[in-house]
Task: inverse folding
């Protein structure tokens, strides 16, 4: 039998951040144009571990006898104390095969003063790296090549409970807008200053109404506004035509038509007939954005989607809608169309555009009525139908505000923490309450946003006390005879208006920062839920790519034990790193396109 010269090489390494648990491994690049045996690629892999510049090789032993791969131990001529810091090895049986075997050093055992037995376990991921291919399988989670907001909204196995509010925004349609008193009548009541002609029927906001509208600007000069209304009402009283008035309410200027017809070029009066046909007010794009404030910014864009970030819209009348930023399609981001319906009981509707839209439709024209909100109950102005009106006006008293003052006073008995309001003269605020001069309760912008919720709890008591206060006011005037019919009384709409609560309010929400950081770290390490049949990702990020599969299968040239082990490694989840020196360093910026 021929003698075979010992010709096996052994490289003993230290500081290699790989373990037999297979939590991490090195991703090896295939050299372009390599041959079928991947010779160049295998040499590049070897250089990564064992080159002179790698810094991992402690000993290079030569001329050793044949090393059996599955024997799992080898004896070397080294003192045991010289091998305590070694954790990895590479060997090659040059006389038989030109293949490198990679292995974890699991233990060292003393044989004698100059001999140590190294126990090892083959690293199947590195040894067979170029000898198998992955088949499509069910990928549970992995890092994605791109990270566009809204690209991945699949549920994640994380706990989301408490939320924090961000910024609040108003629609801009109500607050700080010029106010108008709108009188709806079956006659051209502006003619009450001379004659009284029947109203011309017209389509108003797309609906036929046999009424006319007269809008009176609530000017800075309260006396002027009051005199205008008083003159009109007195003339109607003289003509005994109060029955022509079907409603009188207050609304902001944005809900008046764009085309204004004035009476005798007097800007104090604005009448609308055929010109008041378009119900479309316009569109708004609130400045809500998914964010966590200025103190922290997530690394993963999924943190900007629901359920981690979202916003709500409330009409301040009991209806709140939740909106997901990612469900607005294309250019329709956070766009809402506004329509105003000016019938007997006016209302405003806010409709999201391009929200949860079928992608086959045009996002800019898709109105999702299922997520619309309506504001109604505009403040109705009080009207009296006999001589009582003149006496009330002459007395200079405001029935509505007297009633409201008594009601709020009673409400404060229930909760003394309510006084976050301040009173201001209407001479400075352009506001008329119920058609007569009044003191306005102004919203304090620095107050707690929960004010409206606390105040709304007192509405029932407020309405009861308002009626009682109204009767007390009547008695204080000293009138005799029957109290006339009051066509409307201050209610929820007026309370919302005077407290600046009548508006669409947009509120940002995000999960608590401490919980958000934990979830963001989880995504950084383990990517996103995928739940798709595909070839697993292994190298789609700059520093590391995690993948976890179910029922992974590979095709390759190796024994079945190692093949089964490789498949189980993928099923358990493994992170592929592009550099040995970076393994475990999750502080690196691994976002798509980083670096």
Result:
């Amino acid at each position: 039998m021929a003698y075979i010269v010992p010709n096996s090489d052994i490289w003993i390494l230290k500081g290699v951040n790989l373990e037999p648990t297979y939590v991490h491994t090195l991703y090896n690049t295939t050299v372009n144009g390599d041959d079928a045996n991947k010779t160049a690629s295998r040499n590049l892999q070897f250089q990564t571990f064992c080159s002179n510049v790698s810094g991992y090789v402690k000993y290079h032993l030569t001329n050793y006898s044949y090393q059996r791969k599955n024997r799992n131990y080898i004896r070397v001529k080294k003192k045991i104390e010289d091998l305590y810091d070694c954790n990895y090895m590479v060997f090659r049986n040059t006389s038989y095969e030109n293949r490198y075997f990679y292995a974890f050093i699991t233990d060292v055992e003393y044989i004698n003063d100059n001999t140590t037995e190294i126990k090892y376990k083959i690293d199947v991921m590195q040894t067979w790296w170029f000898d198998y291919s992955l088949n499509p399988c069910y990928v549970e989670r992995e890092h994605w090549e791109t990270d566009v907001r809204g690209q991945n909204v699949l549920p994640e196995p994380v706990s989301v409970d408490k939320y924090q509010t961000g910024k609040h925004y108003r629609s801009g349609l109500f607050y700080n807008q010029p106010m108008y008193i709108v009188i709806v009548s079956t006659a051209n009541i502006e003619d009450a200053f001379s004659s009284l002609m029947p109203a011309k029927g017209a389509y108003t906001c797309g609906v036929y109404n046999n009424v006319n509208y007269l809008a009176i600007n609530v000017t800075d000069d309260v006396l002027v506004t009051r005199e205008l209304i008083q003159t009109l009402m007195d003339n109607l009283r003289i003509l005994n035509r109060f029955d022509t008035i079907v409603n009188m309410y207050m609304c902001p200027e944005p809900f008046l038509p764009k085309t204004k017809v004035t009476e005798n070029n007097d800007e104090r009066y604005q009448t609308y007939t055929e010109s008041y046909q378009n119900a479309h007010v316009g569109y708004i794009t609130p400045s809500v954005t998914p964010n966590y404030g200025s103190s922290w910014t997530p690394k993963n864009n999924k943190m900007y989607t629901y359920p981690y970030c979202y916003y709500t819209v409330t009409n301040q009348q009991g209806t709140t809608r939740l909106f997901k930023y990612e469900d607005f399609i294309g250019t329709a981001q956070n766009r809402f169309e506004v329509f105003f319906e000016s019938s007997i009981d006016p209302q405003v509707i806010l409709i999201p555009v391009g929200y949860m839209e079928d992608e086959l439709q045009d996002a800019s024209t898709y109105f999702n009525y299922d997520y619309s909100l309506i504001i109604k109950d505009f403040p109705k102005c009080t009207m009296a139908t006999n001589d009582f009106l003149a006496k009330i006006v002459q007395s200079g008293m405001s029935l509505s505000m007297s009633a409201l003052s008594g009601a709020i006073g009673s409400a404060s008995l229930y909760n003394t923490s309510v006084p976050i309001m301040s009173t201001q003269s209407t001479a400075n605020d352009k506001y008329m309450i119920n058609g007569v001069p009044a003191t306005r309760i102004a919203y304090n912008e620095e107050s707690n946003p929960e004010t409206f919720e606390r105040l709304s709890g007192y509405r029932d008591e407020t309405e009861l006390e308002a009626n009682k206060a109204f009767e007390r006011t009547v008695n204080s005037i000293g009138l005799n005879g029957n109290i006339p019919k009051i066509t409307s009384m201050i209610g929820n709409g007026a309370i919302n208006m005077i407290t600046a609560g009548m508006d669409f309010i947009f509120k940002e929400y995000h999960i608590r920062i401490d919980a958000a950081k934990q979830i963001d770290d989880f995504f950084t390490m383990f990517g996103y839920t995928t739940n798709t049949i595909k070839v697993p990702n292994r190298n789609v990020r700059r520093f590391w790519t995690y993948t976890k599969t179910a029922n992974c299968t590979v095709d390759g040239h190796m024994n079945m034990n190692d093949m089964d082990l490789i498949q189980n490694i993928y099923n358990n989840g493994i992170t592929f790193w592009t550099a040995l020196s970076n393994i475990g360093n999750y502080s690196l910026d691994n976002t798509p396109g980083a670096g």
Observations:
- The chain has ten helices and 32 strands.
- The longest helix spans residues 459-477.
- The CA atoms of residues 166 and 508 lie 5 Å apart.
